């Protein structure tokens, strides 16, 4: 094993796949000369050249569409968005074209493309740079949605996306995770989509999360342990496909479920998972399924409002105890 | 050199440009040294002549809208330094109640419509503001500012077409500071003379040396007059320069120090000082006294921001509309 940063895990995934397959290329704002707005693609221009590591103007709709067209014509593009907030301009191409092409063409055209970039909050960035988009994209049939919590998963899932997935993949990273250290093996590895990860086994309640929110769930886990509450922690890793069976198995053991996510509450990933678990596991539940989400509002700039907006360990501990019918 | 404008105009320009610069230098210090300001912070330093020249070319009822590099234009429109600094601190007394931050200044009472974070969005929104002014039969003109990076968004082409088609009272001002983050104008398009983009829509277009406040005033006045007299939109490419990085976190490896120094040699404030002194309009002492007055204003703004309260936590769910039958989801 070696220890690398999350941002380098992403870079290794892209670089390894580009060495293997000449049809893979990277395109986006500041990915080449600037080495990436968050230095994810540092050194890739030097290795692969201008033909395959391509700077674009600020034209999200345009370059996303170019990627979609290229994917329909034999290439396997990786399109980086400086943030998923800017990708909203490209949503037309992702939703109206990429996601529907395979069905609409009666199976003639697939669209093997990876859209990736940082997502969600990253400190006090204000309302237009802080949205977390997993549930919005997970609503779209025909695409796959990945939200890794750590560099090891990010590398294996991204390699999987680039090499094996023939559907469009939207891949959610985080500005505040790029500097995280992670252990990755020296040898090549891939992680299959739709397989959640049990981060800690436990018996008292199940806490499900994904993406960078895992870190605050783990903080809460340790608080709960010190109160003799042993939670089972599940990291979904991919949102679509969704490993609800893993969650169901866990709930069959713990009989209690809490979902924590940085996501607006209406129609969130947690809402979908709650439906699935109450339907398939109703008899196993000893308490209502609960969730902790972002506030039902844009994320404001002020430091206290930013904190109040997001899930945090205190909120998790409090709701976990309610689920356990313990006093706070 | 003859003076083309009144002494009051020169003094107004000098004070405003000095205020914008001192305000941002101080704010940057508060960001870097004390951590009182967070998030993205895009400085206007080097581009002050645009704000000053546009102010004297318009009247207070004219509307301004811009992107996230918005401190200078808000200060120009009359948002007080206290409200601006408090917004940077995320305080309740800020010009967006602490909810916006650096990129999202708003001051509708002074006809400043923000402060937009998605590149190029304001080109369309500004066109909508102009549509409404025409619809309401006012004489007001919209000044819609955007950077050279935003000129490559599809939004520009769609709304240039609409603005011409409907003959809207708007002036599009491309603040060309030569870099969209780290990408130079030449690396973003074959069309490096951005004002030529207007030609595709037969929109009157021109370029302006925007390091010179007199030239900004003159060209913008002409465009504003055209818009106000039902003559429709104009595109002006304002050639300027930002001395600072794209944002505070930008290491600026895409340009040389020599290039930045070259631009500083025709700094808009220094040019104005030279003009005012060489025409005996004022003495160095006069300029120093303005600088010192501005310094006090900025110090006071920091004190005001520092002493102001943060918004109450309940503000999390204010200014977001809900249906009384379907309130916020709070579980």
Structure description:
The complex is a heterodimer of chains A (328) and B (331). Chain A has 328 residues and is of the alpha/beta class. In chain A, 36% of the residues lie in helices and 18% in strands. Chain A has two domains: 2-184, Thiamin diphosphate (ThDP)-binding fold, Pyr/PP domains (Rossmann fold); 197-323, Rossmann fold (3-Layer(aba) Sandwich), CATH 3.40.50.920. Chain A contains twelve helices and 14 strands. In chain A, helix 3 (60-71) runs parallel beside helix 4 (91-98) and helix 8 (214-226) packs across helix 12 (313-323). Chain A is globular and about 60 Å long. Chain B has a six-stranded parallel sheet with strand order 2-1-3-4-8-7, with helices on both faces. Chain B has a two-stranded antiparallel sheet with strand order 5-6. In chain B, 43% of the residues lie in helices and 11% in strands. Chain B is globular, with a radius of gyration of 20 Å. Chain B has 331 residues and is α/β, with parallel strands linked by helices. In chain B, helix 2 (48-56) runs parallel beside helix 3 (71-77).
What percentage of the residues of chain A does DSSP assign to strands (E)? 15-25%
CATH superfamily of chain B: Thiamin diphosphate (ThDP)-binding fold, Pyr/PP domains
Low-confidence parts of chain A lasting 5 or more residues at pLDDT below 50? none
Could you tell me the CATH topology label of chain B.
Rossmann fold
Tally of distinct domains of chain A = 2
The number of helical segments of chain A is 12
Label the overall shape of chain A.
Answer: globular
- The CATH C-level name of chain B is Alpha Beta
Can you give the helix content of chain B as a percent range?
A: 40-55%
Order of strands in the sheet with the most strands of chain B?
2-1-3-4-8-7
Index terms:
heterodimer; A: 328 residues; alpha/beta; Rossmann fold; 2 domains; 18% strand; B: 331 residues; two-stranded antiparallel sheet; 11 helices
């Amino acid at each position: 094993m070696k220890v690398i940063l999350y941002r380098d895990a992403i870079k290794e995934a892209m670089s390894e796949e580009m060495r293997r397959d000449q049809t893979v290329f990277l395109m986006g704002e500041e990915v080449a000369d600037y080495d990436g707005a968050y230095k994810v693609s540092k050194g890739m221009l030097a290795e692969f050249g201008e033909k395959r590591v391509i700077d674009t103007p600020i034209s999200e709709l345009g370059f996303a569409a170019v990627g979609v067209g290229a994917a329909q014509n034999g290439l396997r593009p990786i399109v980086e968005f400086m943030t998923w907030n800017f990708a909203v301009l490209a949503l037309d191409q992702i939703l109206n074209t990429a996601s529907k092409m395979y069905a609409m063409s009666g199976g003639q055209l697939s669209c093997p493309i990876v859209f990736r970039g940082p997502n969600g909050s990253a400190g006090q960035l204000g309302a237009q740079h802080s949205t977390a988009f997993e549930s919005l994209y997970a609503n779209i049939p025909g695409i796959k949605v990945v939200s890794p919590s750590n560099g090891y998963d990010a590398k294996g899932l991204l390699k999987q996306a680039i090499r094996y997935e023939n559907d469009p993949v939207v891949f959610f990273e985080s500005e505040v995770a790029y500097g995280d250290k992670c252990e990755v093996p020296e040898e090549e590895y891939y992680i299959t989509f739709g397989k959640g990860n049990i981060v800690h086994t436990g018996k008292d309640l199940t806490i499900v999360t994904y993406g960078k929110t895992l870190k605050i769930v783990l903080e809460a886990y340790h608080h709960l342990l010190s109160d003799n509450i042993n939670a089972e922690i599940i990291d979904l890793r991919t949102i679509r496909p969704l490993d609800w069976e893993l969650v169901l198995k866990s709930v069959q053991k713990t009989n209690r479920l809490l979902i924590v996510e940085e996501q607006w509450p209406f129609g969130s990933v947690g809402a979908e998972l709650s439906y699935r678990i109450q339907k398939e596991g109703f008899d196993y539940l000893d308490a209502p399924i609960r969730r902790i989400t972002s506030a039902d509002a844009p994320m404001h700039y002020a430091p206290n409002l930013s904190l109040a907006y997001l899930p945090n360990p205190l909120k998790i501990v409090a709701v976990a105890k309610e689920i356990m019918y313990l006093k706070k | 050199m003859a003076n083309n404008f009144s002494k009051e105009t020169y003094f107004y320009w000098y004070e405003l440009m000095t205020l914008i610069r001192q305000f941002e230098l101080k704010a940057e210090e508060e960001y870097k040294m004390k951590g009182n300001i967070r998030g993205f912070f895009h400085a206007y330093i080097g581009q002050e002549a645009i704000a000053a020249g546009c102010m004297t070319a318009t009247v207070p009822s004219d509307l301004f809208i811009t992107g996230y590099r918005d401190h200078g234009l808000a200060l120009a429109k009359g948002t007080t330094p206290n409200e601006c600094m408090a917004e940077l601190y995320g305080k309740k007394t800020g010009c967006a109640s602490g909810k916006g931050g650096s990129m999202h200044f708003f001051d509708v009472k002074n006809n400043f419509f923000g402060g937009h974070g998605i590149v190029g969005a304001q080109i369309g929104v500004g066109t909508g503001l102009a549509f409404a002014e025409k619809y309401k039969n006012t004489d007001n003109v919209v000044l819609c500012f955007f950077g050279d990076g935003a000129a490559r968004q599809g939004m520009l082409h769609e709304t240039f077409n609409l603005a011409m088609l409907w003959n809207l009272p708007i002036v599009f001002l491309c603040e060309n500071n030569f870099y969209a983050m780290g990408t130079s104008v030449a690396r973003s398009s074959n069309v490096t003379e951005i004002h030529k983009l207007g030609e595709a829509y037969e929109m009157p277009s021109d370029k302006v040396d925007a390091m010179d406040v007199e030239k900004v005033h003159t060209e913008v006045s002409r465009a504003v007059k055209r818009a106000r007299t039902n003559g429709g939109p104009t595109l002006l490419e304002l050639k300027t320069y930002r001395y600072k990085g794209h944002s505070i976190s930008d290491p600026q490896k895409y340009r040389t120090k020599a290039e930045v120094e070259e631009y500083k040699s025709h700094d808009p404030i220094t040019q104005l000082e030279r003009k005012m002194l060489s025409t005996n309009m004022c003495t160095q002492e006069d300029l120093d006294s303005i600088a010192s007055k501005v310094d006090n204003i900025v110090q006071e703004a920091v004190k005001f921001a520092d002493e102001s309260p943060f918004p109450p936590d309940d503000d999390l769910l204010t200014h977001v509309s809900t249906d009384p039958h379907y309130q916020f989801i709070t579980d």
